[in-house]
Amino acid sequence: xxxKPMRLLIMNENYQDYVITSNYIHQITSQxxxxxxxxxxxxxxxxxxxxxxxxxxxxxxxxxxxxTDHLIEAMIxxxxxxxxxxxxxxxxxxxxxxxxTKTSGPLIKSELNSEKLEHGIRHAVERTLISKRTKLAECxx
Length: 141
Fold this sequence. Notes:
Largest sheet: 5 strands, parallel
Helix content: 40-55%
Shape: globular
Number of domains: 1
Order of helices and strands: EHEHEHEEH
Strand order of the largest sheet: 2-1-3-4-5
Number of helices: 4
Strand content: 15-25%
Radius of gyration: 14 Å
Number of strands: 5
Structural class: alpha/beta
């Protein structure tokens, strides 16, 4: 029997991309997911800061705004839940993205499938658990 569904917020400006991504996610058999869509950056930031979902898929490319780099980094830093970054090939190398303790990815949007999403989500969840355990251990000292 599977655990309760993981609540997954997908931030993407394009609703069709959300539908495609959501369909891939619902093909994953190891975990049930309830997917939610949001295209408003500020609403997503609020959701992340208040831990309203179990995990977040964030489209790194928002209307081509390079200024979002620092905002996304700040959001991830404050968020206590797993984050998976979705990117295009030109932005795949994000200095902090692959080394950040709570992120997976970035995953290349044009190469997405259910297997890659499952791996990315699972990896982000594992990294987040390690990060939380490390913080608890540090507080104990």
